[in-house]
Amino acid sequence: MRPTRAALLVAATALAPALLLTSPAFAAGSTATTTTAVASASGTPVDEMSLDDLRVEVFRILGNKNSGRAVVREATKALEADTPDALRAFLETGYRLAQAEDDRVAIFRILADKNSGTGVIREATKALETDTPDALRAFLETGYRLAQAEDDRVAIFRILADPASSDALRRAATDALTAGTPEDLRYFLEVGRYEVKG
Q1: What keywords is this UniProt entry annotated with (predicted)?
Q2: 109, 119, 123, 164: least buried by Cβ within 10 Å?
């Protein structure tokens, strides 16, 4: 049975302290852009790589600053086993599954953030309900940014509707909405609105 949205939110709230302490740090307003596709520098397929080439690929993943705890754990296990089969298994399937585990943690952290808006919560919950590596990664790479932009638009419309907003603030809010990019909306809410004079 699929978990309900309410159950996911309760779980996120309950697990938030533990997840915050065990998950990789994500900068505010950004997401990890690590992809789970493994391609060697030489373009050699994983099943044709030598033991040394396999080691290099796994070390390359370990060297990526965006690799989360599960990826590091599974890559380390593969390197400790130090057999072609263990290294290939990690590169072919283990990396993707470990990345999905790290992505789940990142999404739970987003859900636990008290500043996450309705659009972000809705899309994060959908990704967790689908629970495939591709859905989790898609949310972190693009869905989060777009859902945040939706929430930012709502926040800006609230500023426009507020009778206490000055004409200068309304003009700046309208400019942000007209520009319309997620970055413009976020910048206005985080910085631009505080720079408005009058």
Answers
A1: Signal
A2: 164
